[in-house]
C-alpha cells in the first residue's frame, strides 16, 4: 500500500481529497489531516458584520465533505520531515507518505504588528478574516453611531485581496441604509500605491472609492498601533487616527511550515508556478494559500490549481513529465454595495480584462462592470462552493486556464 497524505482540510485540501479519491489506483491510501472539526465558507466572513449571514449560515462539519475512501485525522501537525517522507502529529503519531500535498492555507497574525493586540482587540480594533472577528464586528457595528472608520491592510500578500475593498464598499452602503452615512468618515489605508494589486482594476476600484466619498491613504506601511490614542503609525512617521479600525493583519502560513524548514519568512512554501510542485522535494506538492506563488490567495485560484494538480499528481506517480500549465488564473467577484458587484478575471500575465464570463460574447456576467447580475453570481457562489467546488466537481464553462476568447487584453508586467 502506498500513501498520499494531504495536510489541511480547508477549501483546497478537501477539494483535492475528492479529486484524488476518484483517480488514485486502489493500492493507494489517502489520509487528510486537520485539527478542526468544522469547515468554514470563508467568503461568507465578509457578510457577517453587516448581518447578511449569521455564523450558522457558513459552517458545516468537515467530515461531511471528506470522501469515504479517505481517512480523516483530526489532529494538529507538529512537523514535516521532508528528508524521510514523514509527518509528525502533536499526539505523537507519525504518518509516512509517498506523496504529500500541503494545503494548510494562511491565517492572520496580528501579533506581528507592534501594539495591534491588546485590550482594544475586538473592542475598537477588529478583523473580519476570522469567524470570531466577523461576529464581534457585527455586534460592534449594530450599535456604532459614527466617527472615523479606517479600513486597513497591514502588508501584502493577504488572503482574498479584494475583500478589504468589498468591506469598505459594503460599509458605505450599510451606513447609508442606517441613515448615518453623514456621520461616518471612511478611509481605506493600504501599503499599495492604489486600491488594488493590479493597475487596471485599481483604476476602476479607485474611481468607485472616490465616487462614494471614501479617502484613500496609499503607501502606508504600518509600524505600530497605539490602542489608547487610537492611532496607527507607518515607518515614515505618518499617523492615521480612527474611532473604529477594521484591519487585515499580516497573513502567514502555518507554524509547522517554519518548524519543518519548508517556508519563506512568512511561512509560505516556495512552489513551481506552473506545476505546483514544491521546490524542496519532488514528492511534495503545494496548493492554495500555502504557496508563495504570485497569484491571488483566493478560493477560485485553489479551484483552478486543483484540476492541474490532480493531473500532475497522477503523472508523478506514473513517472511522467509534469504539466507546466497553471497560469495564475484568478476570478473574483467584488461587492460594491447596494446589490451590485464587479467581476474580475486575470492571470500571471494579463491584467483584469473587460468582456463577458463565462461564455465568450454571451456572459451572462460582465467583467470589470458593476451589475446586479454579478452580485447575484457572488451570492450564488455559496451553493456552488458547498455542492461543486469542494466536492471536486467540474464547474461548467469555467476552465482552469484563463480563457482568452471574447476578452479585451492588456499585458501586465508580472
TrEMBL record:
MF GO annotations: oxidoreductase activity
UniProt xrefs under Pfam families: Pyr_redox_2 (PF07992)
SUPFAM superfamilies on file: FAD/NAD(P)-binding domain (SSF51905)
Highest rank taxon of the organism: Bacteria
Protein name: FAD-dependent oxidoreductase
Residues annotated as domain FAD/NAD(P)-binding: 2-140
InterPro entries: FAD/NAD-bd_sf, FAD/NAD-binding_dom, SQRD
Amino acid at each position: 500500500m502506498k500513501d498520499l497524505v494531504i495536510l489541511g482540510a480547508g477549501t483546497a485540501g478537501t477539494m483535492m481529497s475528492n479529486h484524488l479519491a476518484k483517480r488514485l489506483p486502489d493500492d493507494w491510501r489517502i489520509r487528510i489531516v486537520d485539527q478542526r472539526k468544522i469547515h468554514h465558507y470563508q467568503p461568507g466572513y465578509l457578510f457577517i458584520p453587516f448581518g447578511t449571514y449569521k455564523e450558522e449560515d457558513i459552517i458545516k462539519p468537515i467530515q461531511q465533505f471528506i470522501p469515504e475512501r479517505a481517512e480523516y485525522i483530526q489532529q494538529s501537525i507538529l512537523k514535516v520531515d521532508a528528508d524521510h517522507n514523514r509527518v509528525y502529529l502533536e499526539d505523537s503519531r507519525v504518518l509516512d507518505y509517498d506523496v504529500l500535498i500541503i494545503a494548510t492555507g494562511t491565517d492572520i497574525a496580528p501579533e506581528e504588528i507592534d501594539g495591534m493586540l491588546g485590550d482594544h482587540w475586538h473592542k475598537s480594533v477588529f478583523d473580519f478574516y476570522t469567524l470570531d472577528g466577523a461576529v464581534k464586528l457585527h455586534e460592534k457595528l449594530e450599535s456604532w453611531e459614527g466617527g472615523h472608520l479606517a479600513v486597513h491592510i497591514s502588508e501584502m500578500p493577504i488572503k482574498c485581496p479584494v475583500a478589504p475593498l468589498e468591506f469598505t464598499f459594503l460599509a458605505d452602503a450599510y451606513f447609508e441604509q442606517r441613515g448615518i452615512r453623514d456621520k461616518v468618515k471612511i478611509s481605506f489605508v493600504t501599503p499599495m500605491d492604489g486600491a488594488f494589486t493590479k493597475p487596471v482594476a485599481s483604476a476602476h476600484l479607485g474611481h468607485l472609492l472616490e465616487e462614494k466619498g471614501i479617502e484613500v491613504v496609499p503607501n502606508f506601511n504600518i509600524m505600530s498601533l497605539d490602542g489608547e490614542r487610537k492611532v496607527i503609525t507607518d515607518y515614515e512617521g505618518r499617523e492615521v487616527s480612527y474611532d473604529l479600525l477594521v484591519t487585515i493583519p499580516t497573513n502567514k502560513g502555518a507554524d509547522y511550515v517554519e518548524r519543518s524548514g519548508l517556508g519563506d519568512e512568512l511561512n509560505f512554501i516556495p512552489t513551481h508556478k506552473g506545476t505546483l510542485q514544491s521546490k524542496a522535494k519532488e514528492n511534495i506538492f503545494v496548493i492554495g494559500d500555502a504557496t508563495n506563488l504570485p497569484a491571488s490567495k483566493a478560493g477560485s485560484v485553489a479551484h483552478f490549481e486543483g484540476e492541474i494538480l490532480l493531473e500532475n499528481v497522477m503523472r508523478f506517480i506514473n513517472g511522467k513529465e509534469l504539466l507546466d500549465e497553471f497560469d495564475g488564473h484568478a476570478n473574483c467577484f467584488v461587492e460594491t454595495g447596494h446589490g451590485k458587484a464587479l467581476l474580475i478575471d486575470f492571470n500571471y500575465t494579463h491584467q483584469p480584462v473587460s468582456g463577458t464570463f463565462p461564455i465568450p460574447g454571451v456572459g451572462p456576467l460582465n467583467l470589470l462592470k458593476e451589475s446586479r447580475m454579478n452580485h447575484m453570481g457572488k451570492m450564488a457562489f455559496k451553493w456552488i462552493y458547498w455542492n461543486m467546488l469542494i466536492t471536486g466537481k467540474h464547474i461548467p464553462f469555467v476552465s482552469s486556464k484563463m480563457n482568452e476568447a471574447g476578452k479585451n487584453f492588456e499585458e501586465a508586467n508580472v
